[in-house]
Amino acid sequence: MQTKLPVGILGATGIVGQRFVQMLERHPWFEITWLAASDRSEGRPYAEAARWRMKTAIPARIAEMHVSPAKPDGAPKIIFAALDSGIAAELEPRFAEAGCAVISNSSALRMQADVPLVIPEVNGGHIKLLECQTWRRKSGGFVVTNPNCSAIGLVLALAPLQQRFGLKTVMAVTMQAVSGAGYPGVASLDILGNVIPYIAKEEEKMEEETLKLLGRLNGSRVEPAQQLRLPSAPEQPIVYLRAPDRPQPRFDADCGAGMTTSVGRLRPCGVLDWKFTVLSHNTIRGAAGAALLNAELLKAQGYLD
Amino acid sequence: MQTKLPVGILGATGIVGQRFVQMLERHPWFEITWLAASDRSEGRPYAEAARWRMKTAIPARIAEMHVSPAKPDGAPKIIFAALDSGIAAELEPRFAEAGCAVISNSSALRMQADVPLVIPEVNGGHIKLLECQTWRRKSGGFVVTNPNCSAIGLVLALAPLQQRFGLKTVMAVTMQAVSGAGYPGVASLDILGNVIPYIAKEEEKMEEETLKLLGRLNGSRVEPAQQLRLPSAPEQPIVYLRAPDRPQPRFDADCGAGMTTSVGRLRPCGVLDWKFTVLSHNTIRGAAGAALLNAELLKAQGYLD
Amino acid sequence: MQTKLPVGILGATGIVGQRFVQMLERHPWFEITWLAASDRSEGRPYAEAARWRMKTAIPARIAEMHVSPAKPDGAPKIIFAALDSGIAAELEPRFAEAGCAVISNSSALRMQADVPLVIPEVNGGHIKLLECQTWRRKSGGFVVTNPNCSAIGLVLALAPLQQRFGLKTVMAVTMQAVSGAGYPGVASLDILGNVIPYIAKEEEKMEEETLKLLGRLNGSRVEPAQQLRLPSAPEQPIVYLRAPDRPQPRFDADCGAGMTTSVGRLRPCGVLDWKFTVLSHNTIRGAAGAALLNAELLKAQGYLD
Amino acid sequence: MQTKLPVGILGATGIVGQRFVQMLERHPWFEITWLAASDRSEGRPYAEAARWRMKTAIPARIAEMHVSPAKPDGAPKIIFAALDSGIAAELEPRFAEAGCAVISNSSALRMQADVPLVIPEVNGGHIKLLECQTWRRKSGGFVVTNPNCSAIGLVLALAPLQQRFGLKTVMAVTMQAVSGAGYPGVASLDILGNVIPYIAKEEEKMEEETLKLLGRLNGSRVEPAQQLRLPSAPEQPIVYLRAPDRPQPRFDADCGAGMTTSVGRLRPCGVLDWKFTVLSHNTIRGAAGAALLNAELLKAQGYLD
User: Fold this and answer.
1) CB contact, 8 Å: D302 with chain C?
2) Share of chain A above pLDDT 90, in %
3) Which residues of A touch D283 (CB under 8 A)?
């Protein structure tokens, strides 16, 4: 039996970092050997440094690991990055320069021309962008990113429509769970009995990331994650629900272990052609699960050897 | 000092009926003298028949009134109707035939060609439709309606745009509070931690009522409610909020005692011309307050003499 | 391999009935062969009759089963009963008289002198009461019950204290989730941003059931469920959590697949001796899971042969 | 007409500070002339420094006031203090030494022997402790405090029982709203669908403050706030609600403009003598309103001249 590849988590104590820890616990290909976070956490046992917010128990082996400084020295070659975008802009290039494969959930480098922004089922072929990424040519390291948590569900629903019918104009309105804001995130006083109609930069991300994701890279071909039998790929990336009042977060968010996007309420639109409702799990398919699936795609295509 | 006009409430024990009771408590023009509800409530004191859900205390005089049968005999000439649409379709015509002025919040007759569907600030002139309403010509009675709770906020925001620039195409997405479903309405198990993407017939109402409200009646003129100094007319029917994260229900729903619609986040749209966010109180401006304002308009124009 | 025992569910369309369906889906000993509900559901496919509220999908085989009338004719010998207490008082005796083993979650017969009220880990020996139960002597049928959802967590926490130190006086205050009220249960308008300080008959049940559960039956011995290796028995019936702010429903309610009761915050009390906090899953350990564990205990002790 | 007394708010930008601003807006006796907060806010207009969370609009005059440094120079003689207890321990004595009347909502000095801890309706006579307060004798300044938000409702309910029957033993369990934790306070991720069974130092405060409040100062007499016609004193400090399911926060928290404590569900107790439920508004009667009533008592008794 093959040994697992050692991986590290940058930003391991935050909510997305914790989700990485949770999702990697019994992963068949990867094994966590390194956890890094801000100076405040450095040197402390992970269980003490992280305010664990997952519903499953903190894995015993991880709980005792000590948090390393957020520097490439001593880090493994494969790094899952769960950093705020300001810090990501500074640290992710540093790890890539040092030869690491950085699989990032941050928005910092998503729109950089030579950085692949990838949903394996949609534009897995964009991974080829790595061939011309400067870091990769210099150090062998690189950065691959996944989209914003709202863009990912939208694009999973749009991709088959684009492929089959073509797409010209899309209007989208999102309703987002507070969990997308990380921890401590939104104050309870701000959100109980309330709706907040604004998330800074969210609309811009939705617009530009969607275009990049649905764009065509010369010569790229889609080789769906499902055919590659990637461990975190759901059986179905999309399901259509027939009941008129579905999808609903309560019943459908966890579909396919949180990796399947649910679509429903398809009906003609009086302005554009069609209207429908999309539901996607924001912290699994929209964050840690997205990055993990990207890592699996990279492994399957030989980029992590 | 002029004596107040006696009014009755049809469907007085439901949530909208209770809101009528609350809003009429100290009304300068109207006074509740009759409360009717379903057979189950008939003959019982109101405080016992109604499961009072308002935050202010039940008015003492009203609490002791006995609930009358839902029949025109003995009813006053002015009736606020807060009935489910199935029952409204049957009862409202009966009261109009008997000579009552029925000011209805139900959807049953809204789209009937000779029934005015009115927001005083937007299309108060539509009241003229009464001139050709069959009931009015026969018995003197009539039916006037107000729109669906979502359509009303939308139309209040659209009307000045239509007047100034013209309107061709509108797309709207609503997020609605559970209180709009009445009582008991939505089960807590269905909505806690959840979003339900469907309300039966809601989209149809939004589409057709909006068109009727923004339509032009030959010869009608708008005489804004604010100029008429109607008691329930807010100082401003619409306010624009500059902060990028407003309007928010928590802070803005009660603006103008729940009668003012808040607009915010106006910005260019990549598909149509402009995008913005509208907030309107669903059970005040969107139900009892809307009907009450219609009654005041009718009074001001001599239809209740 | 042994064939599974056929079981039926009485009240199969309600929330507890659905939980039985969910928990029995892959049960090693029992197999659902019969589903009954009120007249309204009779003859319809289960998927259509039940408004499925569980988070896992409705099992395909069950979805297509037709709902039988709530009568003993044609029912299997083992019946899980999830009925409202008024109906249970009428139907449960009828099934017991007809020779069925009725494993009931209802409060109707719990306090009847010859009906065992059982938590396997606490007073499994009370099952012996069946020896003198009239139904059992006449028809072979019988009724066994589990406690109220709040009493069960309390008693699981008290039992070891009673055994080791003795118990004289207990004061308990409960905070209960809306899910305990079934479906549609509590209206969202009644509970959002609110606390309701009263559930009819709840305090009485807590008081009398606790005494019966902690009572000693002459000659009975506790043979813990864990030793009997009952399939639904959690590894630990109770866990103690050291963190000062635990147990919390969000993190601890699902402990032991919802069958483990969490205790925390043990500290001296200025009035009685000790204070602590108990958390127990209301619809699993407090309802369907409790009944299922009772059924497993009955099977292990030969009462279902 | 008498001119109003100038008052200042220390910690004016926090939630309790904002509540002071809101409650003082149209106060007949006091007028805000000075607002102070931490260094970060110093010199900025209040509307900009405070993240306004009240439901009523920020008063225009206050919005433009500049935030002063938290130092006694230039401060008025009457100071409402809404500081975290760590900072209060340092700043409140400094203002008292400088001759200010500090009316504090903080827990820092509540239990100090010569500092009155006062609920006007319960132990207004404790104000006499000021006679022996060191600060008062030296500079004329002093500190008066109000209790913890949970203690205050409890004591308002217990005081008449103590007076009439005597009190020996009390057990209390509290359920507290997140708003009590200030802003940002509790993260939404921590509390949605959850209950947190612990607030640091809360139980200690409840125990010791209750004893001090219900204690007798030699020679002191109660002169109820209602007799003194203090502007913020509710008509009734306590109301008893007869319905078996009341009080409920949704309907009863705002009783008496948030200053009246509601009691319900009085019934015999099997362990002690009686059980009942108390509801009190945590940020009005339990914080800003409590301090304001204390200030009015001080004024009425000549301590602010």
Assistant:
1) no
2) 94
3) none
In this complex, which chains have at least 3 CB pairs below 8 Å with chain D? A, B, C
Q: How far from the centroid of its chain's Cα atoms is residue B303's Cα?
A: 18
> Which residues touch C8 (CB under 8 Å, ≥6 apart)?
C32, C33, C34, C35, C36, C68, C75, C76, C78, C79, C80
Q: Are C185 and D287 in contact (CB under 8 A)?
A: no
* Binary contact (D249, C196; C-beta < 8 A): no
Query: What's the confidence (pLDDT) of residue D221?
Result: 63
Nearest to B117 by CA among B131, B99, B132, B105: B105
The nearest alpha carbon in chain C to D189 belongs to: C250
The answer to whether the CB atoms of A55 and C192 lie below 8 A apart is: no
* Interface check C266 vs B, CB under 8 A: no
> Inter-chain contact B194–A169, Cβ cutoff 8 Å?
no
Of C178, C179, C187, the CB nearest to B185: C187
Residue D220: band (very low, low, confident or very high) from pLDDT cuts 50, 70, 90: low
> What is the spatial distance between Cα B263 and Cα B158, in angstroms, rounded to a whole number?
10
What pLDDT score does C220 carry?
A: 63
**Is pLDDT at B14 greater than 70 in this prediction?**
yes
Nearest residue on chain A to B278, judged by CA atoms? A197
Is the CB of residue C52 less than 8 Å away from at least one CB of chain B? no
A neighbours by CB contacts (3+ pairs under 8 Å): B, C, D
Q: What is the pLDDT of residue B221?
A: 63
In the three-class reduction of DSSP (H, G, I as helix; E, B as strand; rest coil), residue C103 is classed as strand
Neighbours of C74 (CB within 10 A): 10
Q: Which residue has the higher pLDDT, C222 or D70?
A: D70
Q: Do C175 and D171 touch (CB under 8 A)?
A: no
Averaged pLDDT for residues B72-83: 97
Q: Does C186 touch chain B (CB under 8 A)?
A: yes
- For tokens 């009115």, name the residue: B118
CA distance D187 to chain A (A): 5
- The β-bridge partners of B8 are B34, B79
Tokens 């907040």 sit at which residue?
Answer: A196
Q: By CA distance, what is D246's nearest residue in C?
A: C197
Task: Please identify among residues 146-175 of chain B the ones whose CB lies closer than 8 Å to any CB of chain D.
Answer: none
Q: Which residues of C236-274 are buried (b: 16+ CB within 10 A; e: fewer)?
A: ebbbebeeebbbbbbbbbebbebbbbbbbbeeeeeeeee
Does residue B220 register a pLDDT over 80? no
pLDDT score at C12 = 98
The chain A residue lying nearest B263, using CA atoms, is A197
Distance CA A70, CA A74 (A): 10
Report pLDDT digits (tens) over A149-172.
999 999 999 999 999 999 999 999
Beta-carbon separation of D55 and B250 below 8 A: yes
Beta bridge partners of B43: none
Q: What is the pLDDT of residues A112-155, one digit of tens each?
A: 999 999 999 999 999 999 999 999 999 999 999 999 999 999 99
Residue type, A152: I
pLDDT-derived band of residue D219, with 50, 70 and 90 as boundaries?
A: low
**Model confidence pLDDT, tens digit, residues C69-104:** 999 999 999 999 999 999 999 999 999 999 999 999
SS3 of residue B104 by DSSP: strand
